[in-house]
Amino acid sequence: MVLLIWTAITLLTTIERALNRIFGARESRGLWRRILLYWSVLTLGPVLLSVAIYFGQRAIGIIEGMPVVSVLVSGVGWLGPIVVEIFLLGALYKLMPNTKVSFRAALAGAAVAIPLWLIVKWAFGLYVQMVVRKASLYGALGAIPLFLMWLNFSWLIFLFGAVLAHTVVNLSNLQMAEQAARIVLGPSELLAAAMAVGQPYSKGMGPVTFDQMREQLNLPDLTVQKLLDRLEKIGIVCPVDTDEAACYVLARPAERIGILEIMELGDEEAEGAAKMVYEQEIRDLVKRFKVQAREALGNVTLAKVITN
Q: Is residue 225 within 8 Å of residue 211, measured between CB atoms?
């Protein structure tokens, strides 16, 4: 019993990590939320499935007593189990990732994954029926690697459905993702990100969520995440663990964060792009200007910029 529970929890953990990576969840759930989710899947899932099967059988029994309706339903009655499986897989795609997933997109991914899985299942069953049941030793031995291949294909189909659901969710954001790849993160963008985190925090409003950052900066998700990662790397901001969403605060008081520290971080990528475009004379002039800017901003802190 303990081994069975451990196996189920390990499988659910693997599924959650895979879906978090596919749907771009920035971090996993807390321990208690994960325990509650796993308990719901392991206990309520079979209960809901049993209830759906029970009421489905009752409905079929009632329909069989109606001559006209029974003729119509008999032709499409086989769709019932498939629809139930699509809804269950769609619910898994929606609930398991630690991010918001549209149920419509989850159902779209499940609607493709379930038929593919049924085809693979049918092929494996056909092999068992035609070869293994004939008491052939080689046929029985061949069922073992084929079964492992079926498990592998089932997992790949599950992941493919999740990728398709994620694509449906982010279909409108694909163009923004392409734009994000072309954006050069200069000093202005990094300073804006630091101010977006520091301003609410200095007013006692607490951590800033990722969604709030995206709305304030008006940049694609990938660009905002890249800004936060670079600021976190040098100790300007740090993520905080909350149950609702990914949040960020200043890693140290704003009075101890120099503007130059942020500006020089942005210069690294900007200078790399400039070396490929500007001529030497222009680069020297820009470098001279930056020296003067550093002298002017030497004592300016993030707190002073936010206050002003």
A: no
Contact assessment for residue 269 and residue 185, using Cβ atoms and an 8 Å cutoff: yes
- Region of 60 (left: φ > 0; alpha: ψ -120 to 50; beta: rest) is alpha
Residue 100 has pLDDT above 60, yes or no: yes
The closest of 150, 130, 149 to 140, measured between CA atoms, is: 130
Nearest by Cα to 274 from 263, 264, 265, 286: 286
Which phi and psi angles does 27 have, rounded to 5°?
A: -155, 160
* Model pLDDT for residues 117-154, shown as the tens digit of each residue: 888 888 888 777 776 666 555 556 666 777 788 888 88
**For residue 147, what are the CA distances in angstroms to 70, 133, 263, 278?**
38, 15, 57, 61
What pTM, to 2 d.p., does this model score? 0.54
**Cβ 198 vs Cβ 262: under 8 Å:** no
Specify which residues 301 forms β-bridges with.
258
Hey, where are the domains in the chain?
A: 2-169, 178-307
Q: Is 47 exposed, middle or buried (0-12, 13-18, 19+ CB in 10 A)?
A: exposed
Strand order in the sheet with 208-209: 208-209, 247-250, 237-240
Q: Which residues lie across from 238 on neighbouring strands?
A: 249
Tokens representing 111 are 């609607």
Task: Please give the CATH number for the structural domain made up of 178-307.
Answer: 1.10.10.10
DSSP 238-285: EEE--SSS-EEEESS-GGG-BHHHHHHHHHHHHHHHHHTTS-HHHHHH
Burial of 5 (0-12, 13-18, 19+ CB in 10 A): exposed
Residue type (1 letter), 107: L
Q: Are 232 and 225 in contact (CB under 8 A)?
A: no
Question: Shortest CA distance to 262 belongs to which of 236, 241, 225?
Answer: 236
